Amino acid sequence: MFNRKNSSVCIFNLIVLLFFYKPVFALNADEIVVVANKNASESIGIARYYMEKRRIPKANLISVWITDKEWCTREAFESKVVVPVRRYLTENDPSGKIRCLVTVYGLPLRVEPPAMRPDQKTQANQLKEKQYALSKQMKNLPKEDREKRTELQKQIKQISETRLSITRHDHRSAFDSELSLVLFENYSLKGWKPNPYFLGFKNQKLDISKEDVRMVSRLDGPDAATVKRIIDESIAVEKIGLTGTAYFDARWPAPDPDNPKKNTGGYAAYDVSIHQAAAKVRGKNRMSVVLDNDHSLFQPGDCPNTALYCGWYSHQQYIDAFEWQPGAVGYHIASSECSTLKNEKSQVWCKKMIDNGVAATIGPVGEPYLQAFPVPEIFFGLLVDGYLSLVECYFLSLPYLSWQMVLVGDPLYTPFKKAGSQKDNFTR
Q1: Is pLDDT larger for residue 135 or for residue 354?
Q2: Dihedral sign computed on CA atoms, order 230, 235, 236, 237
Q3: Are 137 and 259 contained in the same domain?
Q4: In this structure, are residues 295 and 267 in contact, taking their beta carbons and an 8 Å threshold?
Q5: Does residue 162 share a domain with residue 236?
Q6: Mean pLDDT calculated for residue range 259-286
Q7: pLDDT confidence of residue 225
Q8: What confidence tens digit (pLDDT) does each residue in 128-187 have?
Q9: Which long-range contacts (CB under 8 A, 24 or more apart) does 188-192 make?
Q10: 247: β partners
Q11: Is 153 contained in some domain?
Q12: Which pairing describes strands 360-364 and 405-408: parallel, antiparallel, or unpaired?
């Protein structure tokens, strides 16, 4: 479930930031390095296919050898990925020209926490058993025994927090999110790290600078054919511009304009951001916009000719409401929606959207908490501007790194590129 704590970012202030930020140069092909897995069938082949299509220099390929499962150990990630990627960048890119890493089909999605010692495993198991016993005891309590129930809830919470600290659950992260900090050494793996590209942190002093970060996007899917479809569609649509309808699925009506700050914490703030995203797309006159502010989600048949989508909340239960246009971008806000791209039985939104035709999507590999999701109004606002690439729109809207979020899609994809005519005016 999402954390109901107020977001550390006031989303309404971000509206103002969009008009005053100093963007980066639009990403170029020679600023990209592609990372592929020699241990995964077709991974190297897809990497070369993409590089040829986008005219990325042949030398900009890093081949690693790691498991082809969707998760890897922290130890394997550090030794088999971080070491060769860091070495390549240090030796071949001392000036920092490379700005983006592309992870390719066959690489893991998730990095597990560091391994526990035997005594830690024993302690964690004992705490789990104790937590289960207390939960069972609380379930059998009479409803009127509120004092005892409150005490048990307190004990269960304390045990849960202790167990999480031992298992280091908050050390688990998305492979790509961790890889973005490949040049930033010796940082704590606990929790998330602020993203210096995020517009909400503009002018704030952070421990991490933009020079420490490499943007990361992933070319992945259930099979190699799907990944090639994503590549080909992105390039083809870029030439003519994305067409169709933008669908935004909020849960509540927009707040009273006379009192815009009322109920803007937590869930409400992100719901308002979906409203703002719809307004930005509509304001650019790129396509027709449908905004639903009813509590229920779009249902099958509701969304013909879908080009853009953002909505929430149907946890790991994709609703097939969409007729996806070639080049479509879909973003569903819910936990663990990118926990797999391969499991045929899974109904997580990222996988199902890719299966059904999107060219780009965003989602977490685990529980990110609400304030860690990319801010919809920033992501879609920048995307329809047509000046910046997909990965740049993502990183400018993404609050945290070394955490749970993944972008699947061609990082160079600029679906409204024909609309953008001022790329050369952007500065670092």
Answers
A1: 354
A2: positive
A3: no
A4: no
A5: no
A6: 81
A7: 98
A8: 887 788 788 878 888 777 788 788 788 878 866 666 665 566 778 999 999 999 999 988
A9: 189/74, 189/113, 189/114, 189/402, 191/402, 191/403, 192/372, 192/399, 192/400, 192/401, 192/402, 192/403
A10: 290, 309
A11: yes
A12: antiparallel
What distance in Å separates the CA atoms of residue 284 and residue 280, rounded to the nearest whole number? 6
The DSSP element (H or E) to which 193 belongs, if any, is strand 193-194
pLDDT at 296 over 60: yes
**What percent of the chain is modeled with pLDDT above 90?**
68
Residue 398 contacts by C-beta under 8 Å, 6 or more apart in sequence? 195, 197, 198, 374, 405
Is residue 123 located within the same domain as residue 262? no
What count of other Cβ atoms lies within 10 Å of the Cβ of residue 226? 17
Radius of gyration of the chain (CA): 22
Whether residue 16 is predicted with pLDDT greater than 70 in this model: the reply is no
Please tell me the number of Cα atoms within 13 Å of 359 on its side-chain side.
27
- Counting the structural domains of the chain, the total is 2
Q: Is residue 177 part of a domain?
A: no
Q: Which amino acid is at 296?
A: S
Looking at the fold, whether 238 and 384 belong to one and the same domain comes out as yes
In Å, how far are 26, 53, 227, 238, 327 from 423, measured between CA atoms? Answer: 6, 22, 28, 15, 21
In this structure, the answer to whether residues 347 and 231 fall within a common structural domain is yes
Phi-psi domain of 106 (left: phi exceeds 0; alpha: psi -120 through 50; beta: other): left
Residues 365 and 244 in one domain: yes
Query: Both tokens of residue 146?
Result: 């509120």
Calculate ∠ Cα 306-394-202, nearest 5°.
135
Residue 143 lies in a domain: yes
pLDDT range class, residue 118, cuts 50, 70, 90: confident
Strand blocks (E) in 366-421: 400-401, 405-408
Q: pTM for this structure?
A: 0.85
CA distances in angstroms from 370 to 140, 309, 334, listed in the order given: 33, 18, 8
Among 77-86, 184-193, 238-247, 270-279, the least confident range? 184-193
Q: 286: pLDDT confidence band, cut at 50, 70 and 90? A: confident
Does a cis peptide bond (omega within 30 degrees of 0) precede residue 313?
yes
| Residues 283 and 352 placed together within one structural domain of the fold | yes
Query: To which H or E segment does residue 325 belong?
Result: strand 322-332
Residues 144 and 239 in one domain: no
Within a domain: residue 206? no
Task: Measure the CA–CA gap between 427 and 72, rounded to whole angstroms.
Answer: 38
- β 173-174/400-401 pair status: unpaired
The domain containing residue 146 runs over which residues? 118-167
Kindly state the tokens that stand for 262. Answer: 């009322």
